[in-house]
Design brief:
It contains 25 helices and ten strands. By secondary structure, it is α/β, with parallel strands linked by helices. Pfam families: HTH_18 (PF12833), Response_reg (PF00072). Its main location: cytoplasm.
Length: 520
């Protein structure tokens, strides 16, 4: 399998080449092109199976290039990347039968998922394998939602797998799966069919009707029912019950949100109905997971880029004048303004906060609080912001960075913002017996490997060594009180085994806790 990456931003193509596990996806060769014309010239020589292309590029845009590529290679798989809310481009992508339309900033898990699906389709077509029930439903939904096929066209391709009620009025529900990258990956790999089948059973128990349930994307499940069998109020009640059941069955590792679409009718296609459900469930970004959303975003709204741009000068001024309170208030104001507008293009909202973080980084570099590798920092921040799933978490992430930079600035420390957050977290939670590098990473919005490597680089010690250092300093303070027993001191610093505490203390100081206390 071969993939061609087409984007006029070298940062994007370089990042995708570097960070996606191509071999794990079954991709043996990856090449890049900076625009549509260059890519078109490369096609006959390279003959890729999959194209991943930006939409807006100079000389020849992604839609024009994909159109020409599709004419020459009808079976080639196309994935579009775009940071713009442009219905005409989306319509063109649908017309070209694009496999996916991934928002920028690119979330690596989402793009990896789309590429994995394209590889699977190529393999399936080449091997002419028999599709399972769940995969057939997935394909039906892809054709329905991304290619807008009619009931007759779907029946022609999939026969009796397409339920007859698709030609009637249909009520649609989009169920969004969320969680950590690790839990999402495990669930998506092993429980697709399990969840879909379980939802079928639950709906039958609640209503007696037979729904159509399947995945269109790896993190989006659709649940469709004949509108003649269920009223709008009953459908909403079914959604609440399904959400409760999903949380009960899988809530330890995943969270779920549901969006209800407008029912299809003579005037509204089933595709439009499903897309309205997707638009509704995107509200989870603004209001959090675990809810049922039935109201679409407001029709008229301001451009998120314009909303954010108005605050940048004031944010810079707050940084220059050491006004931490004002900087925090500006982050809160941007959050409130974005929530009010509820733009469905989440990437545009994230981009506003991303630029705020880059202003903060520029300030930190200017004050000597962090390194000068802005390009590397930009890559990292871009990826971190892309993985945040709610507006509240995004606000908290930006606020935490603001607080860390101000703390560093006041203390004149060379440790960068994220190390400061980690250190502060350890100082506040040293007494927690379950304190680990994983729990610290999860609570400071950092990946575990990156946090450990960065901490070692900046401080010269590992995270675990620092935890031990903080605990021992606290233990020395507690030892001043001769009425406190040694096992109580151990428990107070998060160590349940008194013998281990004594051993650790002696290894560090050369004395047992008792000897140390006697010499005080």
């Amino acid at each position: 399998m071969k993939v061609l990456l087409v984007d006029d931003e070298p940062l994007t193509t370089e990042s995708l080449e570097r960070y996606i596990d191509w071999k794990g996806l079954g991709i043996l060769e990856v090449r890049t092109a900076s625009n549509g014309l260059e890519a078109l010239e490369l096609l006959p020589r390279f003959n890729p199976d999959v194209i991943v292309s930006d939409v807006r590029m100079p000389r020849m845009n992604g839609i024009e290039f994909a159109t020409a590529a599709r004419e020459r290679y009808p079976d080639i798989k196309i994935i579009f990347l775009s940071g713009y809310s442009d219905k005409e481009y989306l319509k063109s992508a649908i017309h070209l039968k694009a496999l996916s339309y991934v928002e920028k900033p690119v979330k690596l898990e989402e793009l990896t998922s789309a590429i994995r699906e394209s590889v699977y389709q190529c393999q399936a077509e080449n091997a002419n394998r028999t599709l399972t029930r769940s995969v057939i439903r997935h394909r039906i939904l892809v054709k329905l939602i991304k290619e807008s096929l009619s009931y007759e066209e779907l029946r022609q391709q999939f026969g009796d797998h397409v339920p007859p009620f698709f030609r009637n009025s249909v009520r649609s529900m989009a169920i969004q799966l969320s969680g950590t990258p690790e839990t999402e990956s495990k669930l998506k790999e092993t429980r697709h069919t399990e969840i879909a089948d379980r939802l079928d059973e639950l709906a039958g128990e609640m209503n007696g009707a037979v729904p159509f349930c399947g995945y269109a994307d790896n993190d989006m499940l659709f649940f469709l029912m004949d509108a003649d069998d269920v009223s709008a109020s009953d459908f909403k009640e079914i959604a609440r019950n399904l959400l409760f059941a999903l949380n009960r069955l899988y809530g330890d590792n995943m969270s779920f949100s549901i969006g209800l679409g407008n029912p299809s009718s003579a005037q509204t296609s089933l595709t439009t109905s499903c897309l309205s459900a997707v638009e509704a469930v995107r509200s989870q970004f603004y209001f959090g997971t675990g809810l049922v959303f039935s109201e679409p975003p407001p029709e008229t709204r301001s451009d998120p880029s314009a909303i954010a741009a108005k605050l940048y000068p004031d944010f810079r001024q707050a940084l220059r004048t050491d006004n931490e309170l004002e900087a925090g208030c500006l982050v809160d104001r941007l959050t409130a303004d974005m929530r009010k507008e509820r733009d469905p293009e989440i990437s545009r909202v994230k981009n506003g906060f991303f630029k705020l973080l880059m202003i903060l980084h520029e300030f930190a570099v200017e004050k000597g609080l962090t390194g000068t590798d802005t390009q590397q920092e930009e890559k990292f921040i871009w990826q971190e912001v892309g993985e945040i799933s709610t507006l509240e978490s995004l606000r908290d992430y930006v606020t935490a960075n603001v607080q860390a930079v101000f703390s560093q600035f006041k203390e004149h420390t060379a440790v960068n913002a994220r190390i400061g957050i980690v250190m502060q977290y350890i100082k506040e939670h040293y007494s927690d017996k379950d304190l680990t590098t994983r729990s610290i990473a999860d609570n400071t919005y950092l990946s575990q490997n990156y946090m450990c490597a960065l901490f070692k680089k900046e401080t010269g010690k590992t995270v675990n060594e620092y935890i031990t250092e903080v605990r021992l300093e606290k233990a020395k303070e507690f030892l001043k009180d001769r009425h406190v027993k040694l096992y109580e001191i151990a428990l107070s610093i998060g160590i349940t085994d008194p013998n281990y505490f004594s051993s650790m203390f002696k290894k560090s100081t050369g004395l047992t806790p008792s000897q140390y206390r006697e010499r005080m």
